[in-house]
Design a protein that fits this description.
The structure holds two protein chains of two kinds.
Chain A: E1 3-5, E2 10-14, E3 19-21, E4 24-26, E5 32-39, E6 46-52, E7 59-61, E8 64-69, E9 74-79, E10 88-96, E11 103-105, E12 109-114
Parallel strand pairs in A: 2-12
Antiparallel strand pairs in A: 1-4, 3-9, 5-6, 5-10, 7-8, 8-9, 10-11, 10-12
Chain B: E1 4-7, E2 10-13, E3 19-25, E4 31-37, E5 44-49, E6 56-57, E7 68-72, E8 75-80, E9 89-96, E10 105-106, E11 110-114
Parallel strand pairs in B: 2-11
Antiparallel strand pairs in B: 1-3, 3-8, 4-5, 4-9, 5-6, 7-8, 9-10, 9-11
Classes of the chains: A mainly beta, B mainly beta.
Chain lengths: 115, 115
């Protein structure tokens, strides 16, 4: 069965601190896709990144970086030098390559950045 | 990436009434989805909106309660019928293209409050 676990319900840090959001997934497929979305208080879901199971290279985009490790079935997200605007709920999701492309969602991590 | 708009952005409705939410995509897409997000929760897939045929509903969701239309490749509607306070949620529309690696993009959501 497929499953995505975001064990951190809420994280609170002071601005400029680095913060890592954890994501652990379960799947039997060898081909799958992992995603991170951001949901600010406005409610809209903003796509951040997609990773396929064959590409374990870490990725950096500005202050954001992602660490994909198949050995531990994890796809963690780090924000460097956090800012108040980073405050949001962050969701990790899994899509299997088998055909229906539905997203399996984690519970989300609420990130609070204090000024 | 697809740009998705939803109408209305929010509404307050009386128990027993129905509300139709519209979702418009700026380009033709293969797949459209409807989600519900209850307060403080993750996303739950209601159904996949199929162009030219009946929607595919997930367990726990039925057509009589959540009728869906998809008359073309850029537009879909979700109706929440005979509403009760338990239907108070954010309803999100999403869309993806047809490729295996395509990403699901989301509309801004509709915040529904049922009194």
């Amino acid at each position: 069965a497929q499953k995505v676990t975001q064990a951190q319900t809420e994280i609170s840090v002071v601005e400029k601190e680095d913060v890592t959001l954890d994501c652990v997934y379960e799947t039997r497929d060898t081909t799958y896709y992992l995603f991170w979305y951001k949901q600010p208080p406005s409610g809209e879901l903003v796509f951040l990144i997609r990773r396929n199971s064959f590409d374990e290279q870490n990725e950096i985009s500005g202050r954001y970086s992602w660490n994909f490790q198949k050995s531990t079935s994890s796809f963690n997200f780090t924000i460097t030098a956090s800012q108040v605007v980073d405050s949001a709920v962050y969701f990790c999701a899994l899509s299997e390559g088998g055909g229906n492309y539905q997203l399996i969602w984690g519970a989300g991590t609420k990130l609070i950045i204090k000024p | 990436s697809a740009v998705i708009s939803q109408k209305p952005s929010r509404d307050i409705c009386q128990r027993g009434t129905s509300l139709t939410i519209q979702c418009q995509v700026d380009s033709q897409v293969t797949m459209m989805f409807w989600y519900r997000q209850q307060p403080g929760q993750s996303l739950t897939l209601i159904a996949t909106a199929n162009q030219g045929s009946e929607a595919t509903y997930e367990s726990g969701f039925v057509i009589d309660k959540f009728p869906i239309s998809r008359p073309n490749l850029t537009f879909s509607t979700l109706t929440v019928s005979n509403m009760s306070p338990e239907d108070s949620s954010i309803y999100l529309c999403s869309a993806r293209g047809g490729g295996r690696t395509d990403t699901q993009y989301f509309g801004p959501g509709t915040r529904l409050t049922v009194l």
